Amino acid sequence: MTKLKEFPAGFFWGGATAANQCEGAWNVDGKGVSISDVMTSGSHKVPRRITLDIDESKYYYPSHESVDFYHRYKEDIALCAEMGFNIFRMSINWTRIFPNGNETEPNEKGLEFYDKVFAELKKYNMEPLVTIYHNENPLQLTHEFNGWADRKCMDYFLRFCEVLFTRYKDTVKYWIPFNEINCLTTKLGNWNHAGILNGKTEFFIAQIDDPNKRFAALHHQFVSSAKAVLMGKKINPDFQFGTMICHITVYPLTCNPDDIILTQEEDLLRNCFSGDVQVKGIYPYYIKRYFERNGISFEITDEDLEVIRKGVVDFYSFSYYMSNCISSDKESAQVSGNVMGGAKNPYLSASEWDWQIDPKGLRYTLNHVFDRYNVPIMVTENGLGARDTFEDGRIHDEYRIDYIRQHIEQMRLAIDDGVNLIGYTPWASIDLVSVSTGEMDKRYGFIYVDKDNEGNGTLDRYRKDSFHWYKKVIGSNGNEL
Ligand code: BG6
């Protein structure tokens, strides 16, 4: 028996956050309104609303205060340092820097906030891993031209990138231009991922879908990402850029060849397409056929394709929460409550929000993507959304420990398989607002925040049992699980 390979020296251990889900201070120091700021709270069964006119007397908007990282970042970063993080994933809220997205000059106060956050990370030798776009489109760009459906959005985004790359050229090395860019292959991506609103649909989950606009928006993000890579490397050739894919791994429900074909189609469209564009620099053959078969068309210029070819990313990153089964049988096709739908896998358990828990699927996925792209990989989100019980300042979250332990075990097996995995930033460093439901009670953090779904609580922070456990894991470089 050969000895199992260890996590490499210098492996990145940390956690992830996103500005709109943790910062709060939604209208402070010149910040403008983002598309997340007009989303009300909901629950597993009650969808979140989009209210273009904010009415705080009628609705609760969880992003407005969130967990107030804006004022508590020092305490939060110190706690992450205590766990031993050497990397910290965060996003920069576009509307702090360009409040409406269309200004020519950035908002200095917004930049100063991130100066301070980066200084704090540096104090503890934590590498920032910065997502440039994480559901923080300026709302004004929806009003003006329906967000990313229009090419104009690219120019504003690139102006934002230029400010960040110049200001943080010696501070930030790792950049992710777009979080979960592939979500635009489904109608769920319209609002959060592109600020697209067709008609007056109030519920973000039930939007009128126009695939022409949606895939055009995705294309505009591909081109913008590639242009950002090319611009960034001129400003600092050491910058490293990554794709970020919401990887919902799919299995055929049965060995019926119809299930196999459907599963392959689903995998190519949802999981592979965006990575193929961003890592390989090509529009793959299967997507051209998909567009033809579905009557989807939008403008792709020769210049766009040239930029995409040149502006490829350096690393592959993805979120991994669950897997799904695909079935050609209509009866079983949609029985699971997962975000992307799909059939229930009888071998797996699920979270209270019906996300199927599949640690071995992570090893499978790591091998799948490394074989496809052969570039360094980071798992930039993974975690369990669960209700925690707070007892005398203690939170015994052994279910979260179990979930993360099992996924780390599988990452180690994937490393042993030969996968070049370089980092792990589970979701989330700290409790924050859930994207899909707007709840606080769907908790992911190692750090508990005293706040409930209605916005009540002291916002005090507490170390969960998983905090102490993860500290031990990091301290032993993944050996003590
Ligand atoms: C990812 C997003 O899809 O999943 C995060 O990048 C999100 O922003 C996370 O919070 C978990 O999803 P949810 O809906 O439980 O918050």
TrEMBL record:
It comes from Youngiibacter fragilis 232.1. The keyword Hydrolase applies. Keywords: Glycosidase, Hydrolase. InterPro entries: GH, GH_1_N_CS, Glyco_hydro_1. GO terms for biological process: carbohydrate catabolic process. GO terms for molecular function: beta-glucosidase activity. Gene3D superfamilies: Glycosidases. This is 6-phospho-beta-glucosidase. The lineage of its organism: Bacteria, Bacillati, Bacillota, Clostridia, Eubacteriales. GO terms for cellular component: cytosol. Belongs to the glycosyl hydrolase 1 family. It comes from the Bacteria. It holds the Pfam family Glyco_hydro_1.
